[in-house]
Q: What sequence folds into this?
C-alpha cells in the first residue's frame, strides 16, 4: 500500500514515501528533502550466516552521477568504484545503526541507499541516514531504532541546522550528528579550531532536530511497521560459559594484565588451548567438537568481562596505566633524506611514519562525484599493512577502514593548511602504520603535523590527536569509567572510541564510534575536556620540543616555485598556438608551468636559476610594448629596407629600418644582421595602426664592412 508521510527538517519539507517501489525488499523508503531524492532499501537473509562470530551488516551509499546531470568520465561511461565520500557516508550510516541490532543476531543485513537526485542545498547524506533508519524501522528486520541525523554548521558564530551550500562555504564547522530520541549515537566533524563549549552546544542543537525526526519515524513504524521476524539466537551456551568462567576466571584476569600486546596475545592463546583441553578431559572429545564454537565465544566473552571488570571495578588497565595516563610518547623528524618532509610518531606499541610531498598545483586530486567540489589540494592517505599487527596477508589496497582513518587525519589538518596564495603547492601526506596497538589514526594526525613542519609547510598551528574510551554499567548508563589514550584491547572490549584532533585553540576533527545505544551530554563534555588536556600535553611536551615551527625553507629536493600575475587576456600569448610558446619555454629551461584561469602563473623547478629564467621569459611575453621601452629581441625577417624583430611580447614584431641600425651608413641589412640574431632595440614610435618602429643607433656600436 502506497503511503506518504510529510514533516519538516530545518524549515524544509521532508517527505517519506513507501509502498510504491522495491516491493520485494524487507523495507523500502523514498526520501525527498527539497529536490534531493534518495531511495533506501533494506534486506535480511532468512538464515544466519554460518561460521561467524559477528553481526554481518553491510551498508552501501551509492552515488549516481545522473543525480547531478553528469555522465561518468570513465571510458565505459559507468559509475566505477565508490568515491571516498561515498565510502565515508556508508560508514556514517552504519555507525549509529549497528549498536541497535540484537547482540546475538547473525543474519546478513544489507542497507543500500541510492542517490537519485541532488539539490546541493539539501544533503543527500542526511536523507540517506534518516531513510536507512526509517526503512529498518518499518521492516520486519529486528532493529531497536529509530535513529536520525542532521548536519550542523557554524556561520558567523550562529549554529545552523542543515546549512545550505552557500552557508557551508562560510561555515567554521562541518558536523554530522546522529542519535536516538534519548542519546547521541554518532559524531563526525571537521572544524576551524572550534572551542569545546561551542562544539557541545552545536551537538545539542542538532539533537533537538533529531528527537523530532525520531518521533516522526516512530509514528510511521506504529502505523505501517511489520512485525519483527524471529531469528536464531547465537548467544553462547550458558552451561559452557559457566564452566569456563568458574574454572578459569582468575587465570584469565591474570593473563590479560600484560603491557606487551604480543605477550598478552600469546597468553590468551595458551589459555585457550588449556581450556579446550580441560573441557575435553571433563566432557569428552565428542562434546568438545559439538561445542567448539561455544567454547570460542565463551573465551572471548570471559576475556571481555575480565578486562571490563578490571577497568570499571578496580580502575586498573591491562597495561598497568592509570585511567587518565597516556602511553609513552616519542617522535622524530627528518628521517628520510630525500623526501620533502618525514616524521615518526610512536605511542606505546603504536607507531606511524608520515611522509610529506610537495607538488605542482596541477597535481591536486581531481574529484568526480555528486558534490560541487572538483579538486582537493591537501591529501592524506593512510596505509595499514598486515605486518603492523603481526599478521601475514597480502595487501589488497585501502579498504573502508583505511579510507575512514585517512579522512579523519586529513580533516584534522585542513584548517591549518596555508592558502594557495600563501603556499602555492599541492600537498600530500602518506601515513604508514608500522605497528598498531590502537589509536593509529590519532598517531597519523600527530605524524602528519610533524612531517608538514619538517617539509617547511607554513601551517597555522600544530595539531595533535587523542582518543578516549568508555566502560559503562549495563544497568545504569550514568555509571561509567572513562579512559584516555585507549589501546586496541580497550577499543575492542570497550563501549566507545571518541577520537578528537585539534590545536591549542580548539577542535579541528571528531570521529566517534560507539557500541552502546548512545552517549549522554555529560559523557561528551567529559570526553572533550579529557582530550583537550591530553592534546595540550602531547603538543607542549612531545611534539614541539622536537620541532617547534615549520622549517624556514623547503627541502632542496622539493620543487621551487616562482610566480607572477598576468592579465587574463595574455594567457593565450604565453601558451601560444597549440602550446608552441609555453612548450618552448619548458624545453629551454626544463621547468614545469601551471597557469590558472585568473592569470596566476606558477613555475616549478629544482633549479632556481632555471625558474627565474623561465619567469623572465613569461614576463617578456606579457610585457606591454611602450615608446622608449628597451627590448631584447630576435631578428625574424630581413627585407631590403630593414629587419623585423620579435620583441618577445606575445609575438609582437617591430620594424628596424636600415637607417636605424647604425649611426654609419649601411648599404645592405645583411651586412650587419641575420635571421636569428639577438639584438637590443628601443621603440621609437607606435603609429595609429599599431605598427612598431625601432632603433639601435643609440644602443650599439656601429658595425661597418671590413
A:
Amino acid at each position: 500500500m502506497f503511503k506518504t508521510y510529510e514533516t519538516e527538517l530545518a524549515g524544509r519539507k521532508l517527505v517519506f514515501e513507501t509502498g510504491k517501489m522495491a516491493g520485494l525488499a524487507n523495507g523500502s523508503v523514498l526520501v525527498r528533502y527539497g529536490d534531493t531524492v534518495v531511495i533506501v532499501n533494506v534486506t535480511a537473509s532468512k538464515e544466519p550466516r554460518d561460521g561467524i562470530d559477528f553481526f554481518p551488516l553491510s551498508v552501501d551509499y551509492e552515488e549516481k552521477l545522473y543525480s547531478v546531470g553528469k555522465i561518468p568520465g570513465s571510458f565505459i561511461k559507468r559509475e566505477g568504484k565508490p568515491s571516498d565520500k561515498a565510502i565515508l557516508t556508508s560508514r556514517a550510516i552504519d555507525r549509529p545503526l549497528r549498536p541497535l541490532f540484537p547482540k546475538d543476531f547473525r543474519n546478513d543485513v544489507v542497507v543500500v541507499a541510492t542517490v537519485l537526485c541532488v539539490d546541493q542545498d539539501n544533503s543527500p547524506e542526511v536523507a540517506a541516514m534518516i531513510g536507512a533508519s526509517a526503512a529498518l524501522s518499518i521492516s520486519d528486520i529486528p532493529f531497536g531504532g529509530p535513529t536520525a541525523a542532521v548536519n550542523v554548521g557554524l556561520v558567523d558564530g550562529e549554529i545552523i541546522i542543515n546549512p545550505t551550500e552557500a552557508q557551508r562555504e562560510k561555515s567554521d564547522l562541518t558536523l554530522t550528528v546522529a542519535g536516538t530520541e534519548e542519546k547521541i549515537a554518532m559524531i563526525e566533524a571537521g572544524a576551524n579550531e572550534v572551542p569545546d563549549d561551542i562544539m557541545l552546544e552545536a551537538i545539542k542543537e542538532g539533537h533537538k532536530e533529531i528527537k523530532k525526526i525520531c518521533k516522526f519515524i516512530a509514528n510511521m513504524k506504529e502505523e505501517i511497521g511489520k512485525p519483527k521476524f524471529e531469528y536464531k539466537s547465537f548467544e553462547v551456551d550458558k552451561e559452557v560459559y559457566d564452566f569456563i568462567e568458574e574454572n578459569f576466571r582468575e587465570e584469565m584476569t591474570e593473563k590479560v594484565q600484560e603491557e606487551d600486546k604480543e605477550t598478552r596475545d600469546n597468553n590468551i592463546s595458551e589459555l585457550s588451548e588449556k581450556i579446550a583441553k580441560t573441557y575435553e578431559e571433563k566432557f569428552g572429545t565428542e562434546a568438545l567438537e559439538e561445542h567448539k564454537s561455544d567454547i570460542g565465544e565463551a573465551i572471548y566473552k570471559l576475556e571481555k568481562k575480565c578486562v571490563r571488570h578490571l577497568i570499571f571495578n578496580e580502575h586498573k588497565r591491562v597495561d598497568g596505566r592509570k585511567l587518565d595516563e597516556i602511553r609513552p610518547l616519542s617522535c622524530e623528524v627528518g628521517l628520510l633524506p630525500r623526501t620533502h618532509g618525514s616524521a615518526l610518531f610512536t605511542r606505546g606499541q603504536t607507531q606511524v611514519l608520515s611522509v610529506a610531498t610537495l607538488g605542482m598545483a596541477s597535481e591536486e586530486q581531481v574529484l568526480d562525484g555528486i558534490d560541487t567540489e572538483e579538486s582537493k589540494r591537501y591529501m592524506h592517505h593512510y596505509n595499514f599493512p598486515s605486518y603492523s599487527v603481526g599478521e601475514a596477508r597480502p595487501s589488497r589496497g585501502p579498504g573502508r577502514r583505511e579510507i575512514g582513518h585517512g579522512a579523519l587525519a586529513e580533516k584534522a589538518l585542513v584548517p591549518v593548511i596555508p592558502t594557495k596564495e600563501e603556499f602555492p603547492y599541492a600537498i600530500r601526506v602518506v601515513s604508514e602504520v608500522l605497528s598498531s596497538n590502537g589509536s593509529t589514526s590519532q598517531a597519523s594526525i600527530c605524524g602528519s603535523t610533524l612531517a608538514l613542519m619538517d617539509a617547511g609547510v607554513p601551517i597555522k598551528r600544530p595539531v595533535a590527536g587523542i582518543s578516549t574510551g568508555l566502560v559503562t554499567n549495563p544497568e545504569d548508563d550514568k555509571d561509567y569509567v572513562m579512559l584516555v589514550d585507549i589501546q586496541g584491547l580497550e577499543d575492542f572490549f570497550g563501549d566507545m572510541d571518541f577520537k578528537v584532533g585539534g590545536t591549542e585553540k580548539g577542535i579541528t576533527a571528531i570521529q566517534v564510534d560507539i557500541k552502546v545505544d548512545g552517549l549522554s551530554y555529560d559523557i561528551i563534555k567529559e570526553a572533550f575536556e579529557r582530550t583537550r588536556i591530553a592534546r595540550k600535553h602531547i603538543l607542549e611536551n612531545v611534539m614541539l620540543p622536537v620541532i617547534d615551527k615549520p622549517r624556514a625553507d623547503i627541502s632542496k629536493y622539493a620543487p621551487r616555485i616562482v610566480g607572477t600575475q598576468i592579465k587574463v587576456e595574455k594567457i593565450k600569448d604565453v601558451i601560444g598556438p597549440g602550446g608552441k610558446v609555453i612548450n618552448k619555454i619548458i624545453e629551454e629551461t626544463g621547468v614545469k608551468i601551471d597557469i590558472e584561469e585568473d592569470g596566476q602563473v606558477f613555475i616549478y623547478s629544482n633549479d632556481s636559476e632555471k625558474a627565474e629564467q623561465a619567469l623572465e621569459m613569461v614576463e617578456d611575453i606579457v610585457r606591454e610594448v611602450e615608446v622608449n621601452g628597451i627590448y631584447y629581441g630576435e631578428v625574424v625577417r630581413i627585407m631590403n629596407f630593414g629587419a623585423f624583430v620579435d620583441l618577445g611580447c606575445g609575438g609582437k614584431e617591430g620594424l628596424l629600418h636600415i637607417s636605424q641600425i647604425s649611426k654609419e651608413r649601411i648599404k645592405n641589412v645583411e651586412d650587419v644582421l641575420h635571421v636569428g640574431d639577438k639584438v637590443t632595440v628601443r621603440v621609437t614610435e607606435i603609429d595609429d595602426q599599431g605598427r612598431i618602429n625601432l632603433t639601435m643607433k643609440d644602443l650599439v656600436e656601429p658595425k661597418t664592412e671590413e
About this structure: DSSP finds 15 helices and 29 strands in the chain.
